[in-house]
Specification:
The complex is a heterodimer of chains A (138) and B (65). Chain A contains three helices and seven strands, in the order E-H-E-E-H-E-E-H-E-E. Chain A is an alpha+beta fold and 138 residues long. In chain A, the strands form two sheets. Chain A has a five-stranded antiparallel beta sheet. In chain A, a hairpin with a 5-residue loop joins strand 4 (65-69) and strand 5 (75-80). The radius of gyration of chain A is 17 Å and the shape is elongated. With 65 residues, chain B is an alpha+beta fold. Chain B has a five-stranded mixed beta sheet with strand order 1-2-5-4-3, covered by helices on one side. Chain B starts with a strand and ends with a strand. Classes of the chains: A alpha+beta (138), B alpha+beta (65). Chains A and B meet through helix 3 and strand 7 of A and strand 1 and helix 1 of B.
Chain lengths: 138, 65
């Protein structure tokens, strides 16, 4: 049985998190209350989550991936040790970036009248970065 | 010159800082824009003595350079 690991980060914005997961081809389940995650054999685990990628969507012999709501409304990813080989820190970082970009794009449009931002990926000494440029109307 | 806001998100490590560069803004305007983006990202103002730095609950730092 692969144990679950709580990823040491949180992702803010339920609506954008679900949208980002859907863009990756997942069909996440959304619960009002946190429900137990399922292991690869269908066994209920003690870890619970409100947003769940069902194990069959994650991969063969995989476990559910969960996103547990935190007191501040953000979500903490819960990924099994087995699945964290594929759904690793890079996957979480890209997911978090996608959600954040969706959030600030909406805010920039509403608050500053910005159109769609320019987005490009660059290599830096500290790793890859997604650079998002908003231009304000003059 | 058009004002721009550039946000850089780390893709390899979610513990690295996110940066916000409010180009063309100055003083209070600069801080206001950065704060607006910090808020949209779920960030709060850090207790740092550097007023241009913000920190969110996930431990990331937004730096307005």
């Amino acid at each position: 049985m692969s144990q679950y690991l709580k990823v040491n980060t949180t992702i803010s914005g339920q609506e954008h998190l679900i949208e980002a997961l859907q863009k990756q081809g997942f069909h996440p389940l959304v619960h009002d209350i946190a429900l137990p995650l399922e292991g690869y054999g269908g066994d209920k685990r003690r870890e619970t989550a409100e947003i769940v990628i069902p194990r069959r969507q994650v991969g063969n012999a995989s476990n559910d991936i969960g996103f547990k709501r935190q007191p501040d409304g953000s979500f903490q990813p819960i990924i099994s040790e087995f699945d964290s080989r594929k759904y690793n820190a890079k996957w979480v970082a890209e997911l978090k970036a996608s959600v954040s970009i969706a959030r600030i794009t909406r805010m920039a449009r509403r608050q500053y009248g910005c159109t769609e931002p320019q987005i490009r990926d660059v290599e830096t000494p500290t790793g890859r970065k997604r650079v998002v440029t908003f231009t304000l109307p003059s | 010159m058009a004002k721009t806001i550039v946000c850089s998100f780390p893709l390899d490590d979610h513990t690295l800082p996110t940066e916000v560069d409010a180009g063309g803004f100055h003083g209070k305007g600069c801080k206001a824009v950065t704060q607006a983006f910090a808020t949209a990202l779920g960030a709060t103002v850090s207790t740092t003595d550097k007023p241009e730095m913000f920190q969110n609950s996930g431990g990331n730092v937004l730096v307005n350079r």
